[in-house]
């Protein structure tokens, strides 16, 4: 049976679209996007999902305690029998309640090589620090900000003339590919977690001749 992905977003939704494209094209096989959930009214990503005929839910977080909001989101995901939750520009920390409901089944993408530059404006942080390379990270989600075992990373050069915007655009292009690879791996189940390390199962060896 197709694995069901729930995407949580708060804004633009380009990573959501990249995942939706990959599902549609079979780059993420045997999967479907069951629902896209936003905590913000008017998030462009939700319009993008609607335009694709994907079910959407807006569950405003304003005025709610973290766990109160998470209970509504979890109920929505459980109703849709979601197997994997993908955070895609979802601007909220998850409560322990949420994490426990989906153990090792929540992924996030962050635009830096974690553990460098967690939090907001990661590309600006990288530029201001003066690193020559940055990138993006897909990791399992725990209660801490941009923490949790790392599934995949991609490296992007920082150029002398970069602004936060030009760097963010270069990183974003990698994000779109990396998220697909990470989701494919996690849905395949061909990995194990040892401590902080997510280790992909060994690729089958070529047959000796
Ligand atoms: C991306 O840079 C992602 O890494 C970060 O938030 C941004 C979301 O962009 N977590 P989009 O909404 O997917 O276009």
Compact description:
This protein has 209 residues and is α/β, with parallel strands linked by helices. Helices cover 35% and strands 24% of the residues. The protein is built from six helices and nine strands; from the N terminus they run E-H-E-H-E-H-E-H-E-H-E-E-H-E-E.
SSE map:
Blueprint: E1 3-9, H1 14-25, E2 31-38, H2 44-51, E3 56-58, H3 66-79, E4 84-87, H4 96-101, E5 106-110, H5 122-129, E6 133-140, E7 150-157, H6 164-188, E8 191-194, E9 197-200
Parallel strand pairs: 1-2, 1-4, 2-3, 4-5
Antiparallel strand pairs: 5-6, 6-7, 8-9
The structure holds 5-O-phosphono-beta-D-ribofuranosylamine.
Task: Explain what you see.
The protein has 209 residues and is an alpha/beta fold. It is 35% helix and 24% strand. α1 links the parallel β1 (3-9) and β2. α1 (14-25) packs across α6. The longest helix is centred in the C-terminal third of the chain and has 25 residues, at 164-188. It is globular and about 50 Å long. The chain binds 5-O-phosphono-beta-D-ribofuranosylamine. 5-O-phosphono-beta-D-ribofuranosylamine binds next to α1, β5 and α6.
Number of helices: 6
Strand ordering within the main sheet = 3-2-1-4-5-6-7
* Structural class by secondary-structure content: alpha/beta
**H and E order:** EHEHEHEHEHEEHEE
Tell me, what's the shape?
Answer: globular
Mean pLDDT across every amino acid position: 96
Fraction of residues in helices?
Answer: 25-40%
Total beta strand runs: 9
**Terminal-residue CA separation:** 37 Å
Computed CA radius of gyration, to the nearest angstrom: 17 Å
Largest sheet: 7 strands, mixed
The kinds of small molecule bound in this structure are: 5-O-phosphono-beta-D-ribofuranosylamine
Strand content: 15-25%
- List low-confidence stretches: none
